UniProtKB/TrEMBL annotation:
It comes from the Bacteria. It comes from Methylophaga muralis. One of its GO terms (molecular function) is DNA binding. This is Competence protein ComM. The keyword ATP-binding applies. Belongs to the Mg-chelatase subunits D/I family. ComM subfamily. Keywords: ATP-binding, Nucleotide-binding. Residues 209-389 form the AAA+ ATPase domain. The gene is comM. The keyword ATP-binding applies. InterPro entries: AAA+_ATPase (IPR003593), CHLI-like (IPR045006), MCM_dom (IPR001208), Mg_chelat-rel (IPR004482), Mg_chelat-rel_C (IPR025158), Mg_chelatse_chII-like_cat_dom (IPR000523), P-loop_NTPase (IPR027417), Ribosomal_Su5_D2-typ_SF (IPR020568).
Length: 500
């Protein structure tokens, strides 16, 4: 038989689109051509495939070989098509049975010796293959990632020879290697933070309602330490959240590490990061930091040091929970349901109001002005973190130890469960109509909010954020209704002396 068909997958954003690899052998001068919108790395696969076949003791056909990657209008990149191309050539030249390829999909890069090497995007490929009711063959290094879906059946091989032996029923390859049975908790403990009771309280509220928060204060007050402890007090990830997050990391340049399964991501890009690094991009769109932080925490330290144009790109994802990247050739949409935590100093030197500060009013104004009003308006909570009490630098034996992350986490889980039962979402995601139903205020409390709006010049968006935070505070207290004390505390999180 001079023609063979092998099934594979190409990555388009976080989705794995079906690709049919068609191989045809015909008479003529020996040659190998690849068609079907293949980029450079795919076209180079012909040299890798030729060497892999010869070094694996197979016969490379001395005929005209035409390889079509269909559909032709779908961009293909990377070395993931090496294995299906090699198998297509072997099947077309009757060196492996064609019928063994009908119910399987293949991805993998080939070394010159026939070794199979890991590729990106195995998890979305495994999900799509399972939905198509086919089995998947992957490189051995990708086996655990492919097994994370717990759906369908996947096989793992180290070499091209092993794949062919499996197709000849001469060797049974391992299938569905189990992922880690015990999820390791790698989060830093909140007990490490001494003092800062108000900041710890604000962090707990932020975790319970999935609210964004800005910490402002002088250097060394624990802003970064507090932010790094947030993932450890968040509720556990659901299976769907874990798969979605792992899928995004799977298609990223770094790839997905199986030991991070069910772990909420914590991303902390440097303030020199570009807009593309933050939201994603490239000729073939790749996810940025906001997508890699999906269902986790995005921490922006030294917020005013970020380029203002870079920060402005966050405004839409904060509201919508997704980012759409459009290019001339194609378009990709990535989820970005991250929880924003930011930190800043009160002035360029960080010591505003102290003798060591020599910043002028103009320098302070320009420094704070790097954060636009619209962006600041979209942050739910503004928290001032004061200098650490010197007495806490040397704990005494009779000091009461701070609460651990696990203790705080249990309260957060209970509050989040109340929110899910009420609206099937965290309070930070409540829409306008839902606020009218779940965040009703008495006449006295509404007048209190009106005074705050008038005094602080708050917007309608800020008013809605006050209601969401107050609703979370009430949930932590186990109250079915928002009380005055809850509302007063929520209003306090909308004002900072350092954010004038």
């Amino acid at each position: 038989m001079s023609i063979a068909t092998v099934y594979s997958r190409a990555l388009t954003g976080i989705y794995a689109q079906a690709v049919t690899v068609e191989v045809h052998l015909s008479n003529g001068l020996p040659s190998l051509s690849i068609v079907g919108m293949a980029e450079t790395a795919v076209k180079e696969s012909k040299d890798r495939v030729r060497s892999a076949l010869i070094n694996s003791q197979f016969t490379f056909p001395q005929q005209r070989i035409t390889i079509n990657l269909a559909p032709a209008d779908l961009p293909k990149e990377g070395g993931r098509f090496d294995l299906p191309i090699a198998l297509g050539i072997l099947a077309a030249s009757n060196q492996i049975p064609v019928q063994s390829l009908s119910n399987m999909e293949f991805i993998g890069e080939l070394g010159l010796t026939g070794e199979l090497r890991a590729v990106r995007g195995v998890l979305p490929t495994a999900l799509a293959t399972s939905e198509a009711n086919r089995q998947l063959m992957v490189p051995f290094e990708n086996a655990e990632e492919a097994a994370l879906t717990e759906q369908g059946e996947s096989f793992a091989a180290k070499t091209l020879l092993e794949v062919c032996s499996h197709l000849h029923d001469q060797l049974r390859l391992p299938t569905n290697l189990n992922k880690q049975q015990h999820i390791q908790n790698n989060y830093a403990d909140l007990a490490d933070v001494r003092g800062q009771a108000s900041a710890r309280r604000a962090l707990e509220i932020a975790a319970a309602g999935s609210h964004s928060i800005l910490f402002a204060g002088p250097p060394g007050t624990g802003k970064t330490m507090l932010a790094s402890r947030l993932p450890g007090i968040l509720p556990p990830m659901s299976e769907q959240e874990a798969i979605e997050t792992a899928t995004i990391h799977s298609i990223s340049s770094a790839g997905f590490q199986v030991e991070n399964w069910m772990q909420r991501p914590f991303r902390a890009p440097h303030h020199t990061a570009s807009a593309v690094a933050l939201v994603g991009g490239g000729s073939q769109p790749k996810p940025g930091e906001i997508s890699l932080a999906n269902h986790g925490v995005l921490f922006l330290d030294e917020l005013p040091e970020f380029d203002r144009k870079v920060l402005e790109v966050l405004r839409e994802p904060i509201e919508s929970g997704k980012i759409t990247i459009s290019r001339a050739a194609n378009q990709a949409e990535f989820p970005s349901k991250f929880q924003l935590v930011a930190a800043m100093n009160p002035c360029p030197c960080g010591y505003l109001g102290q003798a060591r500060c020599h910043c002028t009013e103009e320098q302070v104004r320009r420094y704070r002005g790097k954060i636009s009003g619209p962006l600041l308006d979209r942050i739910d909570m503004l928290m001032e973190v004061p200098a650490v009490d010197k007495k806490l630098l040397r704990p005494q034996p009779d000091d009461v130890p701070p609460e651990s992350s696990e203790v705080v986490r249990q309260r957060v889980i209970q509050a989040r469960q109340i929110q899910l039962e009420r609206a099937n979402k965290a309070n930070a995601s409540l829409q306008h109509k839902e606020l009218e139903v779940f965040c009703t205020l008495s006449d006295h409390d509404f007048q209190l909010v009106e005074k705050a709006i008038s005094r602080f010049g708050l917007s309608a968006r800020a008013y809605h954020r006050i209601l969401k935070v107050a609703r979370t505070i009430a949930d932590l207290a186990g109250s079915p209704d928002i009380q005055t004390v809850h509302l007063t505390e929520a209003i306090g999180y909308r004002r900072l002396d350092t954010a004038n």
